[in-house]
Amino acid sequence: MNHDTRPVGWIKAARKAFESFPAIVRDRVNTALTIAAEGGKADIAKPLKGVGPGVLEIAVRYRTDAWRVVYVTEVAGRLWVIHAFRKKSKTGIKTPKAEIDLIGSRLARLRRETMP
Question: What is the tens place of the pLDDT at every residue in 23-72?
Fold first, then answer.
C-alpha cells in the first residue's frame, strides 16, 4: 500500500446502497476508489458538474444499467464516498436533479460534521 494513500470514508447510506450493487460493479468501483485514494484518477471517474470542486463520479455500465458512485476528494484529510446509486436511463446521460440535490445536501452535512 502506498504510504500517501488517504483513508476512504463512507456516508452510511452510500455504503448500504453500494453493497447492493453487483459484485463486478463493486470490484470496478473499489479499484477506482483505490486509485483516487492514492492521488490518481481512474479512467471511469470524471468531475461531477453542478456540485462544486473536488466532487467526482465513478460510472460503471453493466448489462442495461448505469451504476454511479460519487466521492469528494478532500474533506478532513479523507476521500469520502457520499452517494451510490443505479441510474435509470430516463434522462439520457445527465445525472437526475434529485440525485444532484441529494449529493449536495450530503456534502454540506459532511463538511459541517467534519469541521475542526
Answer: 999 999 999 999 999 999 999 999 998 888 889 999 999 998 899 999 99
Amino acid at 71: Y
Q: CB-based burial of residue 14 (10 Å sphere; 0-12 exposed, 13-18 middle, 19+ buried)?
A: buried
- The domains of the chain, with CATH numbers, are 8-113 (3.30.2310.20)
Distances in whole angstroms, Cα of residue 34 to Cα of each of 27, 66, 101: 11, 20, 26
Rounded Cα gap, residues 25 and 68, in angstroms: 9
CB-based contacts of 10, cutoff 8 Å, min separation 6: 18, 80, 81
Q: Residue 37 corresponds to which cell in the numbers above?
A: 485514494
Quote the pTM value: 0.89
| Of 59, 56, 66, 65, nearest in space to 103 by CA | 56
